[in-house]
Write a structure and sequence with these properties.
Length: 53
């Protein structure tokens, strides 16, 4: 396996509704929750954009 192992392990608490939604999405796409969560994190914006006046 050539995958680089994670530098940080993260534990999250989900409501039952959130867990169900994640499980359904994973079932629909055939992808593991870890992949989905990583994709969502990568999509976050980390730069502050200033509103022009």
């Amino acid at each position: 396996m050539n995958k680089k192992w994670a530098v940080k392990r993260l534990t999250i608490n989900l409501t039952s509704g959130e867990a169900l939604k994640l499980d359904k999405y994973c079932s629909m796409t055939g992808r593991p929750a870890t992949d989905i969560i990583r994709e969502l994190i990568r999509s976050l914006t980390t730069e502050i954009t200033q509103k022009e006046n």
